[in-house]
Amino acid sequence: MNLHLAFRSLASAAASAALVVSASVATPAAAQDSADLASAVTALRAISTMRADFVQSDPNGQQVKGVLTLKRPGRIRFQYEKGVPMLIVSDGSALTFVDYEVRQVQRWPIRNSPLGALLDPNRDVGKYGRVIQTGSDRIVSIEVRDKARPEYGVITLVFVRKAGVPGGLELSSWAALDSQKRRTIVTLSNQQYGLAVPDNTFRFNDPRSPTRR
């Protein structure tokens, strides 16, 4: 598997997932669709901490696994499985992509990234979303795109109605189509909420120096 492509695809998928968390979305025609969209926004904003296993799949069926950890406000970590020398992490102020194979680090402020919408429940970024009919009352599927920023691509998020989870909807997977028409599917499992997550979870070893960031 091309790990650099896998990394970029997951980064795109992770960032694009944030687009759904907005109060300024296109209003669906049906009242139920509007309610489902609002419920999905509420569910994502209700998460204080979460840990989940993820599997990323590309169109060729290749997969890479890892663990996602989220803590509000502003912290998230996509930790790849052993043998995949890449990392996505936010410490609350900046989003960082780390490639240990080529010893490269890229950083930018959360506020300049769509991922900021996922991490900051008070942020209104004026995105667009619509409910996709699934034929099941248990499944809520939402396609999200920012027409003003096509470089973010398109993402379809799939939620499952589940009692006892924040907001009553659990994000189970998403499919992201980037601006180069590359599709990535990320599936979550073993979601856990309300865990004690120390802040040092969102630090990383900088491959450019021995100093831990």
Please give a structural write-up:
The protein is of the alpha+beta class and 213 residues long. It has one domain (3-189): outer membrane lipoprotein receptor (LolB), chain A (Clam), CATH 2.50.20.10. The chain is 16% helix and 38% strand. It is built from three helices and eleven strands. The chain has helices spanning 3-17, 31-45, 115-119; strands at 49-57, 63-71, 75-80, 86-91, 94-99, 104-109, 128-132, 139-145, 154-161, 169-177, 183-193. The chain has an eleven-stranded antiparallel beta sheet with strand order 6-5-4-3-2-1-11-10-9-8-7, covered by helices on one side. The protein is globular and about 55 Å long. Residues 15-29 have low confidence and may be disordered.
Report the sheet-strand fraction: 35-45%
Tally of separate helices: 3
How does CATH name the architecture? Clam
Q: What is the general shape?
A: globular
Q: Major sheet, described briefly?
A: 11 strands, antiparallel
> What is the count of structural domains?
1
What is the residue-averaged pLDDT? 76
Please report the first level of CATH classification, the CATH class.
Mainly Beta
Low-confidence stretches: 15-29
**Using DSSP, what is the number of strands?**
11
Order of helices and strands: HHEEEEEEHEEEEE
Summarize the amount of helix as a percent range: 10-25%
